[in-house]
Amino acid sequence: MSLSNLTAAANDTLHSCGKTAVTLIDAYHAGGSKVLSRVDAGWEKAVNRGAARLGEKLRHDLVAAQRELTGYYAKGLESVSAKSTAAVEALVQVAATGVERLAGRVQSLEAVLRPLPLNSAIVIAQPFAEASREVAGYVAQRTAQAVSRIEGAAVEVETAVAKRSPAARKTTRRR
Hints:
Strand content: under 5%
Number of strands: 0
Low-confidence stretches: 154-169
Radius of gyration: 27 Å
Largest sheet: none
Shape: elongated
Order of helices and strands: HHH
């Protein structure tokens, strides 16, 4: 694996992790919105259930107060989601820039030192880079499926069958 391939693998992993983080933020937002809608519905149901004992104005005030609180929560949810997404995107951009700079410095070192001492490190890092690509892709896929479930969409999941040999039992004598 050359330095450019290692750099590409690192950048792919970074971007995949960034997408996964944004997907998790979207899941947080979707879950929070669902909670809000259920709380509103439950509150209105509870207020309407006790409607006979409550006056019209009090019922109206209770529902209005709940909606105002829900509005504050919704604004906070939106703000946190937007700022978190921006922070993750900025972090991924800075990390990718760092990887590119490091690769440039290693290439300039490679020009000076013909048999680059880091070549062996690059060769050793190859399996880890490929594994991190695969893990990041798998996590991103599973996260997207979780978000779909939270949002209420139907999801088809391929289940992996575990290939394990049955454990050998030790026989012990009881006296």
